[in-house]
Amino acid sequence: MQVGDRVRLLTGREEGIVTRLLDNELVEVAIDNDFTIPVLRREVVVVAAEEQKAFGKTAAAVANERKAASTGAARAAQAAGEKPAAASASGSTKKGSGPTSPPVKIAKGLYLALVHQSPELLAVHVINNTDADVLYTYGEERPDGTYRGLASDKLDSKAASKPLGHWHLKDFDKWPAVLVQLLPHQLNGTTAYDLLSKRTQFKAATFYKSRQQAPIIQKEAYLFQLDEKPAAPLAPPTPEKLAETLKAQLSGNAPAKPATVAPTQEPAKALVAPPHELDLHIEALRPEGAEGLSNTAMLKLQMDTFEDALSRALATNMHEIVFIHGAGNGTLRKEIHKQLSRNKDIKFFEDARKEKFGYGATLVRLK
Predict the structure, then answer these.
(1) Residue 53 region, left (φ>0) first, then alpha (ψ -120 to 50), else beta?
(2) Does 314 have pLDDT greater than 60?
(3) What is the pLDDT of residue 267?
(4) Cα gap 187→191, rounded to integer Å
(5) What does 72-126 look like in DSSP terms, one character per residue?
(6) Residue 320 CB-half CA count within 13 A
(7) Positive or negative, the Cα torsion across 116, 175, 361, 272?
(8) Distance between CA atoms of residues 313 and 276, nearest Å
(9) Are 1 and 14 within 8 A, CB to CB?
(10) pTM of the predicted model as reported, rounded to 2 decimal places
(11) Per-residue model confidence (pLDDT) at position 296
């Protein structure tokens, strides 16, 4: 089982895509049009490979093709002012129908492509549509400025990487910035190139306009060029320059390196563990209650408090914590469960003791 495999839950009819391998027994699965959940490996089965082997195509692919074919036929007939008709046995098209337009040719280059795995889930790829091999690193930069390197590999000429990440469209506003570093390389080549770094921050105004046919993988994708400014060749120093530098060093006239000044560090604040039972009712968080707050502002305050408490609980090695969210309309409970399902440091979570909290609290067991 690998990242990107389509799987079916053995305990239900839901299907999804493996987005992360959490450990030897646990994987993270993105259910179509829903949020990701941790699932035991023994509770899911890979469906795409087996159905492809047995039937040639997955059931979902056949259904999608039939739907697309029927929709296309209906639209064509409507445009011609006729009723949809079945294609002839020879497969010939209706007289007078125009030829299909050729696919748009994408220029050579290096690209970042986001490809739909499902209507809501996108997979991130790096595409090398050049004649040279490329060494690359892929990382993500969070809004707080922290960077996390996630992948590094060699990408052959005219090739695409495996999925490097999976993102939900509904979380678009929370997407990190992507930082890709690229170093062109050719075996026995005569030119060395400088390292090319490209930081991409997605914005709704331009993101949805970038959808087009991606090279190499030949799929519709949101496509962003990484080498708009090609990597510059590294020019070797001339003998005269080397002699001048060496002479300056031997005579003691070489420019002195600036002294490194160690930054002053503020003393670390003591980390305080949250209470074992944290009440997230708005009345417990604000003395004045909900006065002057919209529903959105109240939910944000509650979620910020929840995330802060969870972070401190993990940092102080707590074994468990109870979040009291109340029953209500279930919005806060759903948002909390959504965040917990995505956190790899959570062993499991469940409704807390019903005899004490009813259905208004969640017990979280931490790793």
Answers:
(1) alpha
(2) yes
(3) 57
(4) 10
(5) HHHHHHHHHTS---PPPTT-PPPTTPPPPPPPPPPPSEEEEEEEESSSSEEEEEE
(6) 11
(7) positive
(8) 9
(9) no
(10) 0.45
(11) 87
